[in-house]
Amino acid sequence: MKNYVLILLACFIWSCGNDKKKDITPIIENNQLTAKDILGNKEYLAMSYGGYRYADHNIEPTLKELKEDMYLLHALGIRMVRTYKVHKPQAENLLKAITEIKQENSSFEMYVMLGAWIDCKNAWTDKAPIHNEESEDNKPQMEKAVALANQYPDIVKVIAVGNEAMVKWAASYYVEPWVILKWVNYLQDLKKNGTLSKDLWVTSSDNFASWGGGGNEYHVEDLNQLIKAVDFLSVHTYPMHDTHYQPEFWLNQEGLEDKTDIEKIEISMLRAKSYAIMQTDNVKKYMESIGVNKPIHIGETGWASFSSGHYGTTGSKACDEYKEALYYKHMRDWTNEAGMSCFYFEGFDEPWKGGNNPGNSEKHFGLFTVDGKAKHVLWDAVDKGIFKGLTRNGNPITKTYNGDNEALMQDVEVPPTAEEWHASQNKH
């Protein structure tokens, strides 16, 4: 009844024709939006966000820098961002930055899926990780996430317990599913007793295999209970990585005969889209096999624009700005049509990732470079002027390659044939 009265009030104010009063209408309406309204709504596109600009991860982005990024993402139509941890100041400062922008501009909307990092015992130490015990740091992470969700209820709409915290290739820190289940239940209990909003959604964001879409080693009862406990499944899918680890998928030449190089690339990127859909469908099939039917959204997927390693010239030749642009379009088209959110990874390059090698692909997943150059995927947006007056690190938004398409295409390679692949691997 309370919400109904507010909506009637908003309509009344609007009908009065007072321009000044009109400005408060979006605030009244937007305060009513919940995760259920936002997720899967193509008017509220999502993005994974990290604002770290330096190789030194200890240098935190300032409020001004965070605001720069939020304005850029907002201009792209992004209305929800995903963060990863709360033991560093970035997430809390981001919430402050969004709040200040909203105070300055009543029409600005940005919501957050707040991540709480989860580790096993001895993670990131010189001791052997104990995957069936949890880190003592998990509890303060969760308590901080709860506090921030309550402090910023108009912004925080989802809490995600862990990031790729169950997938077994995360050998330095992964936990068994019971740990994630414990903290999901903790949050759900807080919702039941009124400590957290009943409209706040709770999930864990993890690899498709961890959600049951991979091998049988993941199909355990604790996972089944976790699927039943979350409000939705946040699934990661990365066909780009599988171009190296499962090369037979890319080496298949069927349908590529007599095609131009560009046609081969475009067909290959459509295969990548199909591969992501297949992995997500496998999660859905497993979920349904245990009698559950809940929303699935893409917590992460992305494509690096450069790699000097496995995914570059000497490997699967997967990474360049042209393929990144195709993949981004394919993921948005698919998820928008399917009524799914896609927290695309990611808005901006982050130099701290991937060690000391500047060519490590982990440093190159952004749609923007660190200094504010828009990669090929955003060239049309630059031409349309949507970034006019906006900056990154104080720089106006310009195109990579100075907008020279011929120069860009010189760095674009066709995925290898089986013969080329095996020849390149025999050299190593």
UniProtKB/TrEMBL annotation:
Q: Name one GO molecular function term.
A: glucan endo-1,3-beta-D-glucosidase activity
Which keywords describe this protein according to UniProt? Answer: Carbohydrate metabolism, Cell membrane, Cell wall, Cell wall biogenesis/degradation, Glycoprotein, Hydrolase, Membrane, Polysaccharide degradation, Secreted, Signal
Describe the task this protein carries out: Glucanases play a role in cell expansion during growth, in cell-cell fusion during mating, and in spore release during sporulation. This enzyme may be involved in beta-glucan degradation. Active on laminarin and lichenan.
What Pfam families does this protein's entry cite?
Glyco_hydro_17
Q: Which GO terms describe its biological process?
A: cell wall organization; polysaccharide catabolic process
What species does this protein belong to?
Hyunsoonleella pacifica
Extract one GO cellular component term from the record. plasma membrane
The name under which this protein is listed is: Endo-1,3-beta-glucanase btgC
Record's InterPro entries? Beta-glucan_modifiers (IPR050732), GH (IPR017853), Glyco_hydro_17 (IPR000490)
Highest taxon above the source species? Bacteria
Q: Which SUPFAM superfamilies match?
A: (Trans)glycosidases
Its annotated compartments are: Cell membrane; Secreted, Cell wall
